[in-house]
Amino acid sequence: MPLCIAAVRWLFGSSITAMHLLPAVFGVIVLILTRSLVKKFEGGLFAQTLALISVTFAPMYENTNSMLEYNCFNRLFWCLGIYAIVCLLKTEKRKYWIYAGIFAGLGLMSKYSMLWLGGGILIAMLFTRQRKYYLCRQFWIGGLIAFLIFLPYLIWIVDTNFLTLEYLRNYSQKQETAHITFLSFFKAQIFVMNYLTLPLWACGLYYFIFHKTGKKYRLLGITYFVIAVLCVVMHTKFYMLTAFYFVLFASGAVLIERVIGKRRLKWLKVVYCSLIIIVGLLFLPLVRPVLPPQIAAEYANFLFNPSKSTEPKNFKPTMLPSTLAGRFGGEEMTAKVAKIYYSLPMKQRKNTYICTWNYDEASAIYFYRKKYKLPIPISGHLQYYVWGYRRANKESSFIIVGFPQKKEDRILIPNFNSVKKVGQTDSKYGLKFNNQPIYLCKGLKIPIEKFWLDNKDMHP
Fold it and tell me: 94, 111, 155, 202: which could join 138 in a potential S-S bond, CB 3.0 to 4.6 Å?
């Protein structure tokens, strides 16, 4: 992912349009794969149209195709891996295990959640005739390729004292995932994939598991349920499984086409496709920034109250749903930090560091730092912890951004001789979590190494 982003920035710069380029391209690739799958399942024009409409107007996909984040890379490699498995099942050409291994390795380098897809397939194979591939040479070659591609990351995990394992443990204990149930998990699936596509992907599962012409792909149907069980048992977020649905849309569309064709219910084609589009368009302003912020906020309140969001309290939006709210406040915060930074005497400024509580704030400041001529920010959160505190020392001053006010007495005051509130981030449309005081702290009482270790945060 960093390499792809660097290439885009080198070619097109860092504009908002440039940052949206990769997600859009990946979304088009998924559409191409979806159409190809329908054709492999021997579907006609209506099946292709229905599947493509369903992929295009699924709220989760609408959101993923508009945000440059790991999820858009992860979704692409899930789709490519599933596509390779479909080709394997259709042709029984074992070379597709090698392609699947390549996609699995690249997917693992983008996000570890590729393990759920790989694990789901490996477990599902035990219940189908595809268990024969456990003795296949190409199967093991594909696995070796995936391992070798993933090896640099494994080395990094060891080199960083297994911080990833600490992160995964914390991830499973998060408030919004710790009490997940099968009912809540599938309710979320129905919502984010568009309510009206439920009959479609349910037909897709039926086609894979029970239909006489679809049973050759039974491995995929069982894989879906295995991954769903793994997600609930391991307390993952609801969107872990969403990349799988494109193949269910394809198979479900083929089955529906055959049923409608036999019963001469062709009028249902236009009605069903139109309803999916309408629902997708209704939810579009909630997952993509297609409306001005104030109008989007009014629209969100018209459909539902964002303050009643199921997100944890700190992550609730101020006016917009969290899918949009997280896109706001970054530049305003950076401008306030810059004003504080340049209010300091030149001598003090040279040894002043901007330290954030969360990687969100650090990333925003890093993105806008050249415009506001700020130093690279530091943070103890996730990857920023690994990058370290740079050249900070006990004599340094710190502009602390995003630390919750309740943390002041526990973290800042005991560790600094001087703690002064000098500002406040306040985004009208952003997340409440990001609206926090800004502190200027001086006179670190303990070694910087200990302060850094004490404030390590491997929580999502």
Answer: 94
What one-character-per-residue DSSP string does 274-298 give?
HHHHHHHHHHHHHHS--S-HHHHHH
The residue behind tokens 């019963």 is 263
| Contact (CB, 8 A) for 219 and 123 | no
Determine the length of the chain: 460
Taking the CA atoms of the chain, what radius of gyration do you get in angstroms?
A: 25
Instruction: Give the angle subtended at the CA of 11 by the CAs of 5 and 13, to the nearest 5°.
Output: 75
Ordered DSSP codes for 56-91: HT-HHHHHHTT--SHHHHHHHHHHHHHHHHHHHHHH
Is 323 within 8 Å of 368 (Cβ atoms)? no
Residue 408 identity (one-letter amino acid) = E
**Of the candidates 4, 52, 12, 63, which has an alpha carbon nearest to the alpha carbon of residue 29?**
52
Tokens of 237: 């977020």
Residue 308 DSSP one-character state:
G
Q: Which residues of 348-380 are buried (b: 16+ CB within 10 A; e: fewer)?
A: eeeebbbbbbbbbbbbbbbebbeebebbebbbb
DSSP-assigned letters across all residues of 24-36: HHHHHHHHHHHHH
Pairing of strands 397-401, 352-356: parallel
d(CA 393, CA 389): 9
pLDDT band at 405 (very low <50, low <70, confident <90, very high): confident
172 vs 271: which has the higher pLDDT: 271
pLDDT digits (tens, 9 = 90+) for 3-17: 777 787 888 877 778
pTM: 0.90
Q: Which of 59, 62, 53 is nearest to 277 (CA)?
A: 53
CB-based contact 379:388 (threshold 8 Å): no
